[in-house]
Design a protein that fits this description.
Layout (H helix, E strand, L loop, with lengths): L1 H34 L9 E8 L2 H4 L14 H11 L8 E2 L5 E5 L5 E8 L4 E8 L2 H10 L4 H29 L6 H18 L3
Antiparallel strand pairs: 1-5, 2-3, 3-4, 4-5
């Protein structure tokens, strides 16, 4: 029975390790970059562009209201052609009678598009903050969308399985490794002591 149990634990342990390996490396590295964010300098790259929305499409914009519906699809396509930023699917701010404003944040970047309701002029700005900022935002789940949201949950579950199976394997082998439980105790005591007495 012990052999079967041990075999199952080893299987779950290596499978969860394989599934979470790359993401665990990414999250570990970005943990360091986030912890030293003030020491890592990055010069944002700002790109501005403008264009013109044809009158027939301008007429398709809804009346100003307090809603947050996205732009009509054909309008969004025309805007993407004009300013090289695709606002399709993003919520639009319709509360201003003179302007439609679409915020388009993403990992490592901030972007926006505005449409002048009277003239049809389209203005856009895209700010890229670099690869480190991009990876840091992935770590935080900032402006990363639904797919990444669910990926983080699946990755977290894999890490929990990896950790718990590792703990059970430690328990099974602890009899022959006297330092096992002192080291496990340290893994709890060190962050606990730092959090209680030094993290303020």
């Amino acid at each position: 029975m012990r052999t079967i149990w041990l075999k199952q634990l080893h299987t779950w342990h290596w499978v969860s390790a394989a599934v979470s390996l790359t993401a665990m490396l990414l999250f570990s590295i970005t943990g360091i970059t986030l912890n030293h964010a003030a020491s890592i300098s990055a010069e944002p790259t700002v790109t501005q562009s403008s264009g013109q929305l044809p009158a027939p499409l301008l007429a398709k914009l809804p009346e100003a209201n307090d809603g947050a519906a996205p732009l009509p699809q054909d309008v969004a396509r025309e805007v993407a052609k004009a300013v090289m930023l695709d606002p399709a699917g993003y919520s639009a701010d319709w509360s201003d009678e003179a302007e439609v404003y679409i915020a388009m944040p993403g990992p490592g970047r901030d972007a926006w598009v505005s449409i002048d309701r009277a003239s049809g002029e389209v203005m856009a700005e895209n700010t890229e903050r670099g690869w480190i900022s991009y990876l840091n935002d992935l770590h935080k789940g900032r402006n990363t969308g639904t797919a990444w949201f669910w990926f983080i949950d699946v990755f977290a579950v894999a890490c929990v399985v990896f950790t718990l199976t590792g703990l059970l394997l430690l328990q099974l082998h602890a009899k022959h490794r006297p330092s096992t439980w002192p080291l496990v105790g340290l893994s709890l005591a060190i962050p606990l002591i730092i959090a209680l007495f030094f993290a303020h």
